[in-house]
Write a structure and sequence with these properties.
The chain has about 230 residues and is mainly alpha-helical. Helix content is about 80%, strand content about 0%. It is globular, with a radius of gyration of 21 Å. The N and C termini lie far apart (about 45 Å).
Length: about 230
């Protein structure tokens, strides 16, 4: 056991793991940023165009919701493969971390859109009605009532989204995306390097735990500021 741990924490193994970790961080950071931008927009659109929303557009809401659900229903692996040609058109390559950012974002945007919609729906209707009674516009209600009130939940959803993205980068690694997923499959599994597999698992556990702690800390701080805990 001691000999195995020595191999796991050896310079040779971490010479593979550290570059792969940075590739995963690069893919995750950019994909998360894109997902948050579009996910917030789409989630708010789903909310305000609902039949009970701020600006009801039932037909648009049903069509748009169906598109979101269609992408959600597809396995991540299929979505990644389907949108690789689009990635090649945008970035010029179909392999490596840069090429898979588009596919990863498309996988996660529908997920986060539904998260945002659910977070906003949790805001007390009385607060929305009070804002309307005071003459607030729809934009004011969205940016000064809905989003601030749902911020703790959105932060927790952001953490879940990031963890989900990290796990999906592992799937993308099987198709040449690079990162920890490709390292685990090509070097750890295919070459029977259990020391590399163990090192990858350690990195993923540490990253996920840090994200969970960060999200819980920020969310609790906001709730304390509002005297809700």
């Amino acid at each position: 056991m001691t000999e195995f741990l020595a191999k796991v924490f050896s310079a040779e193994v971490w010479g593979y793991v550290l570059p792969a970790t940075w590739q995963t961080i690069y893919m995750t950071a950019i994909s998360t940023t894109i997902t948050i931008c579009f996910g917030l927009l789409f989630g708010i659109l789903l909310y305000i165009t609902d039949k009970d929303g701020l600006h009801p557009l039932p037909i648009f809401n049903k069509v748009f919701g169906a598109i979101i659900n269609s992408v959600l229903s597809l396995p991540s692996m299929i979505v990644i493969l389907l949108f690789l040609p689009l990635s090649k058109m945008i970035v010029g390559v179909s392999y490596g971390p840069k090429a898979f950012i588009v596919s990863l974002s498309i996988v996660c945007i529908p997920i986060f859109s539904r998260m945002v919609e659910n977070s906003v729906l949790e805001v007390a209707k009385g607060k929305v009605e009070a804002a309307k009674a005071m003459g607030a516009s729809n934009l004011d209600i969205i940016f000064k009532v809905m989003l601030p009130e749902s911020l703790p939940t959105l932060i927790r959803n952001f953490v879940v989204l990031t963890i989900t993205l990290i796990s999906i980068t592992a799937i993308a690694g099987s198709f040449g995306a690079g990162g920890l997923g490709e390292l685990a499959v090509r070097f750890g599994y295919n070459r029977y390097r259990s020391d590399i597999l163990a090192a990858v698992i350690i990195v993923l556990l540490v990253v996920v735990e840090c994200l969970q702690l960060f999200g819980a800390f920020i969310s609790k701080k906001i709730l304390k500021k509002r005297h809700l805990v």
